[in-house]
Amino acid sequence: MSTTDMTAEEMFEDLTGLEETLIAAHFGDEPVQLAQTRPTAFVRSLVFAHLRRAQLPNAKNKLVFDEVQNMRLGDVNTYFAESAEEIDLENPVTAEGEGVALEH
Description:
- The chain has about 100 residues and is mainly α.
- It contains six helices and no strands.
């Protein structure tokens, strides 16, 4: 169960320049690079930014970072809402192999 209605993609698109700088300082790389090379750290960095926002104006970056680093991987992976699966109208079969009936 997600902690927020926001998807990870939405959080990524909503990052501010300050949050990108803080992520680089605490996670060792820019969010775009983390997404390509360290996907788990990338998701943790998004959780970091989200939790930091929730704690403003009293957010302590090091404490928020420690909180995120101490989260279980399963909790990190389910923190954000799932993205709605896009359906290809030409081939409307989901990844799970279930057909989707669509009317054109």
